[in-house]
Amino acid sequence: MQTDSLSPIPLETLTALCKRRGFIFQSSEIYGGLNGFWDFGPLGVELKNNLRDAWWRDMVRSPPLGPDGEALDIVGLDSAIIQNPAVWAASGHLGGFNDPMADCRESKARYRADHLMVYRPKNGQGTRFAALTGEEARAEKRIKKVAKADPADYEVVEYTQIAEEEIPMVWGPDASEPGTLTPPREFNLMFKTFIGATSGEDNVAYLRPETAQGIFINYKNVLDTMRVKLPFGIAQVGKSFRNEVTPRNFIFRSREFEQMEMEWFCHPEEATKWYEYWVKTRLDWWASLGIDLNNLRRREHGSDELAFYSTACADVEYKYGFTHPDYGELEGIAHRGNHDLTQHTKHSGTKMEYHDPQTNEKVIPHVIEPASGLTRGVLVLLNEAFAEEFVPKGDSDAEVLQAAPGAPTPDGYEKRSVMRFSPRLAPVQVAVFPLLKNRPELVNKARDLHNELRGNWSCFYDQTGAIGRRYRRQDEIGTPFCVTVDFDSLEQDTVTVRERDSMKQVTLKQDELSSWLREQGI
Ligand code: GAP
What we know:
By secondary structure, the chain is α+β, with helices and mostly antiparallel strands.
């Protein structure tokens, strides 16, 4: 677990482990890859599906109790990725879903202008030095080397705040001289495509940049068919696409990703209560997956960050290795007022009112929207689970030591890499081994056990190598339980279960194994 705040896990370490162990691969790798796209391998897809299923179970099938202990009503939806372009005109995405970008004429690099930090001399004289957020050290090095100055004599401003006449004085991060950056300009993040055989403007359509609008345009269908009453929610999980200017930090910001969003429709007078409820509930949910609360925080948006129609928005943030010691967004919970339903009423002509059958009151519900990234959630699970430790060799009862990145292995210890996924989310939950691969009676019994268990759990069979090495291989992919069939199994119908985190072993009767595993929460 990422418990030591002094040793963040480098992104390269996670990326390399993900490739080596079959979690996540660069998309189209054999053709040189494609920036901003990733493929989930056999273990990655299990982890992602487990996270998705946990969200669906805890939001739709069995939502939490409300603030007064009442049962909540949330229904599911799976809307199309390509929708009528009028949806995106109504939602404001066509007009305003933009990021500022700047190009370097020399290096041809493209930057998010709001991610470029410019070091400007406090006396206003001379070259300005730009660096991407997180890479400020590069600019400081250049200040010392080229300007022979002290970075403390510079103030730092976003590139979007730089006056036009200053732009020729800015030295871009990848340029060999100042003056190669273009002024910032707006760039729409929607992916465009064409419907049907002709590619004229009349056939233009867009890949959805969020799952939320699919919910708003089906609000009336759900209301008319499901007999739901205010307050209620509609939830959806699925792919979204954003033509990000600079996809960065592995799967944190990609161009194709998955979201888990829920729109909570409530009476306008109750919206503040529900906003508070959902912010707290969502942060608690991430903690319930085994994420250390010290690595999670709630960040309230300042008034300058809020959309004009929104009265409040908070992010659940996580301390990623690459943001450390700072935090980055994992989920946003927005109080959206009645903006979306009003916009779709205006643009489609379909009334989005709710008629209360008891009071006869007609209202346009207000919406609280917990919107999280499924792919980004996977990154959090990987980051949180990753640990390296020094384990005493042989029968020594010395303590296991936490290994700092790059630290040499002390004498008498060996290094162990382990992914401490919560057992219910682990891509492989149970591994089954015969003690020896050249004893058919052990192999047959282990294979039978594997076949029996895989009906209920995600299982892996391995008969190759010494038992200790098989344990280490499972530790590296985060398998919480390894079950060994040995000679006692043949005579007494027992199995040995070794637990990943404690590395302790217990002997169980084989017919008690399933109920024992269930008691462990899987
Ligand atoms: N409907 C509101 C909405 O889409 P958002 O903050 O833009 O809000 C919600 O997105 C979540 O989706 C984010 O908190 C993040 O977890 C995830 N997300 C957004 N853009 C992403 C990207 N380019 N790559 C991966 N995840 C992304």
